[in-house]
Amino acid sequence: MRKILVVSDTHGHDNNFYKVLDLEEPLDGIIHCGDFEGSEGKFALAADCPVYFVAGNNDFFSDLNRELEFELSGHKCFLTHGHQYLVSMDLENIRSEGIARGAEMIFFGHSHRPVAKNIEGIYLFNPGSLSYPRQEGRRPSYLILNIGDFGEITWEIKYL
């Protein structure tokens, strides 16, 4: 079983990220969906596993890619912050882009609201925000993705 931590929209306030690391380690990977606001280097140093990071709309001076494609245990993944796909309005644009890229799992942030769904075999994951949550109750959120030995995918949205 592989355990992947998915976070987003930390906006330079990293204390909750370190709390989550303490709670969830050991990890087999970390995905950050953008809007670090300058702290991406600290995230990479804190991780004792592979990391997959993209820049968000507030990462003005970041050298990170805006989009990334990679594989996790044989599953093709597409990672982007999401603002270019209007994810605050609906998920169809980002889902269509993921399908066009052959992705089975799509990771994004931007809306600061957690989403985890499987729509016709395409997984859409937004962990929400660890710093500025916007969903009802406004609790900082993240997502734990588990990939089983036979490729099965399970997940849980967690709150601090």
What does this entry look like structurally?
- This protein has a single domain (2-159), classed as 4-Layer Sandwich (Purple Acid Phosphatase, chain A, domain 2), CATH 3.60.21.
- The protein contains 3 helices and 10 strands.
- It has 160 residues and is α/β, with parallel strands linked by helices.
Q: Give the C-alpha Rg.
A: 14 Å
Named CATH architecture = 4-Layer Sandwich
Helix content: 10-25%
Average of the residue pLDDT scores: 94
The biggest beta sheet, please? 5 strands, mixed
Shape: globular
The name CATH uses for the topology is: Purple Acid Phosphatase, chain A, domain 2
CATH superfamily: Metallo-dependent phosphatases
For the record, give the distance between the C-alpha atoms at the N and C termini, rounded to a whole number: 24 Å
Number of domains: 1
Low-confidence stretches: none
Strand order of the largest sheet: 3-2-1-9-10
Q: What's the order of the H and E elements?
A: EHEHEEEHEEEEE
Write the layout of secondary structure elements.
Elements: E1 2-7, H1 15-24, E2 29-32, H2 40-46, E3 51-53, E4 67-72, E5 75-80, H3 92-100, E6 105-107, E7 114-119, E8 122-127, E9 141-147, E10 153-159
Parallel strand pairs: 1-2, 2-3, 5-6, 6-8
Antiparallel strand pairs: 1-9, 4-5, 7-8, 9-10
